[in-house]
Write a structure and sequence with these properties.
Layout (H helix, E strand, L loop, with lengths): L5 H30 L6 E6 L2 H10 L7 H4 L4 E7 L2 H13 L4 E7 L12 E11 L2 E13 H17 L5 H23 L1 H30 L3 H16 L3 H20 L4
Parallel strand pairs: 2-5
Antiparallel strand pairs: 1-2, 3-4, 4-5
Protein name: GTP diphosphokinase
Pathway: Purine metabolism; ppGpp biosynthesis; ppGpp from GTP: step 1/2
Enzyme class: transferase
Length: about 270
């Protein structure tokens, strides 16, 4: 190991990961607000451990003075999607961004690895503002489904245990598991519309329930205690009966009462 200050070396990568996470989570929120659905389920990130950097540099014969360009995934971002089609859509959003530069892409979904590994990788160059000026760092963005990620996490753990030399029987079973995960993704894609409709319905109900309870609490603020208690009891009854239509009607009634309370009127 050279005598570099690893904390100082990794700081721009840590900053890049944090900034990219914030920006991609913001994109997720915007898409959800615009379309009531986001192709991004969630976003995570990490900076590679020093030991992993050194091991990879040795494996790839990367000189220590060139690890910042020879190892492209020191900064890593992972985006999870529900459906395979979402992966390509997310990749399209990343290609359009002006705050990073796309270096190249690796499609391990169309051309999956012999092991069964499936994922979509994008190597990007991201500018970080440091105390001594701007520094461009490489980062790897992995986009995959939840099923792909589950398989890849297991494979990574097994490779760590067996030092990249998996027994043939384990390798064969992993490959079968990868095929099963691919079949699962295909099945989920085939009922995509039904899944999204159910999720939208659930979210709409959840938002409506939260809004009703918030409005009831606001009535207490305006000292409409009797009304608030009555509305709460009616909401509880309708909720027990799973009467969504009734709760929607109750919501309108509460809104009218709250409007009068704000105007200083009487019931």
């Amino acid at each position: 190991m050279d005598g570099r200050d690893w904390g100082l070396f990794l700081q721009p990568y840590e900053q890049a990961v944090e900034e990219l996470k914030v920006k991609l989570k913001t994109l997720r929120t915007e898409l959800k607000n615009r379309e009531a659905y986001s192709p991004m389920e969630f976003v995570t990130g990490r900076v590679k451990r020093i030991s992993s950097i050194l091991e990879k540099a040795k494996r790839l014969s990367v000189p220590m003075e060139k690890i910042d360009t020879g190892i492209e995934d020191i900064a890593g971002i992972r985006i999870m999607c529900q459906f395979v089609d979402d992966i390509h859509r997310v990749a399209g959003f990343i290609r359009m961004r002006k705050d990073l530069k796309l270096v190249y892409e690796k499609d391990y979904i169309t051309n999956f690895k012999e092991s069964g590994y499936r994922s979509y990788h994008m190597i990007v160059e991201y500018p970080v503002q440091t105390a001594i000026g701007q520094k461009h760092v490489l980062a790897e963005i992995q986009i995959r489904t939840l099923a792909m990620n589950f398989w890849a996490t297991i494979e990574h753990s097994l490779n760590y245990k067996y030092k990249e030399s998996l027994p043939d029987v384990v390798r064969a079973r992993l490959k079968k598991a990868a095929e099963a995960a691919s079949v699962l993704d295909a099945e989920m894609s085939s009922i995509r519309n039904e899944i999204l409709d159910a999720q939208r319905d659930f979210e709409e109900k959840s938002n409506m329930f939260s809004s009703v309870l918030s409005d009831i609490q606001e009535l207490y603020f305006f000292h409409r205690v009797r009304e608030a208690v009555q509305f709460q009891l009616r909401f509880n009854e309708l909720w027990e009966q799973e009467d969504t239509f009734g709760i929607r009607m109750l919501s309108d009634e509460i809104r009218s009462s709250l409007y009068r309370a704000k105007k200083g009127g009487t019931t």
